[in-house]
Amino acid sequence: MSFSFKSLNRLFVFLFVLFTAVSVHASEIFTMESKLLDEGITARVALPESYNHSDSFQYPVLLVMDGSTQFEHIAGNVNFLSTFSIVPEMMVVGISAKNRLKHFTHTEIEGYEGRSGGAEQYTRFLRDELLPELQNKYRVSTYTVVTGHSLSGLYTSYLATHHSDFINASISVSPSLWWDEFTLIKDIKLAKQESEKPPVRWFVSMANEPNEMAESYERLLNALEAKPESIFNWESKQFPNETHDSTPLIGNVEGLKSVFRGFNAVPNIEIKSLDQLQAFYANYDKAVGYDFPMSVHQYNVYGLKAAYEGKVDWGQAILERGVEVFDQSEILWDSLATVYSMNDNNESALKASNKALHFAREHQSKYISEIEAQNSDLKKQTER
Fold it and tell me: Per-residue pLDDT averaged across 308-312, rounded?
């Protein structure tokens, strides 16, 4: 069967039913005492919805600065985008600095002695205290993304340009690059390649903002355009219809898509076999310098796309591999049941559906109604 927009629309309807009401799992509260900052830290953690589908799969972590105001919409967008394999599934951690001016600026300026210039100390806290605690408590991989807005956008810009040893990708929404007479931009002009590690993937954006904000953004673009990609791997976007306060929502969505550009193996209407998917991600991993194993939603979306476009055997192979890796995933077992049914293998379809129903009940899955409906239909078919 040739791939068509009609069949793609049919698939979209199916996925819409399956993924309707995509939402963030209830967040957990994570607390710790920081010796480096000499203060108590409270963070909010949103686990990927597939977290309980495996006992060993590790997830990248997205550190959200100003978590008290930015955590919820970013966690929701990560959940939505990862559901359709636009970005990887990630553990989202929202943290809030009690002293933003001190922690998010890397230089101390006159008049703010003792109240600015603490970015390096805050970075040590994130790297040496927070992440190890998260790794002890959760299945966190070594791939780290940071995002910040305004003053914390200045800080994530600092991490992008000064700490490729610590982070892999950074999002800076309307960053306060004017700080200390544009000192960060001066650093960029002097920057040289320091290691063989791929540079941080960095997305920076600006809303419709006047004066020093607009000037700093223009200066930044000029400085970055003069540098090779081997030093700074960056993209930028301006949002003329947004204000400083409204821009974090769209800025983070575009930022996530930017730092994970090329991640989606099947972005439009083409399909791939399991072997082709594995080859695709081997190339992607080489480009970004990190091994991204396929997640629940990647196996699910790619498998269903292949099956619904006439390559049922391709879809079956992808989903069968998926349940090998994520043997407790109600999503994958349910989709595999669908594909077995498309292949007129009702006995295998019912076995897969029974597993999906078991795990859906165990996980109190939001997909329980759809899974129960398919299970009931398959039982009726096998009884005929």
Answer: 95
- Print the domain residue range for 326: 274-383
Per-residue pLDDT for 8 more than 70? no
Buried b (16+ CB within 10 A) or exposed e, 47-86: bbbbbbbbeebebbbbbbbbbeebbbebbebbbbbbbbbb
* Mean pLDDT over each residue of the chain, to the nearest integer: 91
Q: What is the pLDDT of residue 194?
A: 61
Q: Answer yes or no: is pLDDT of 384 > 80.
A: no
The pLDDT of residue 179 is above 60: yes
CATH number of residue 312's parent domain:
1.25.40.10
Whether residue 106 is contained in a domain is answered as yes
- CA 43/CA 23 separation, integer angstroms: 19
| 268 in a structural domain | no
Whether 70 contacts 251, CB under 8 Å: no
186 and 325, same structural domain? no
Please provide residue 59's backbone torsions phi and psi, each rounded to the nearest 5 degrees.
Answer: -120, 140
Same domain for 127 and 216, yes or no, is yes
Whether residue 7 has pLDDT greater than 60: no
DSSP state at residue 203: E
With a cut of 50, say whether residue 5 has pLDDT above it.
no
| Domain count along the chain | 2
Using an 8 Å Cβ cutoff, are 141 and 58 in contact? Answer: yes
Residues 314, 205 within the same domain: no
In angstroms, rounded to a whole number, what is the distance separating the alpha carbons of residues 281 and 273? 12
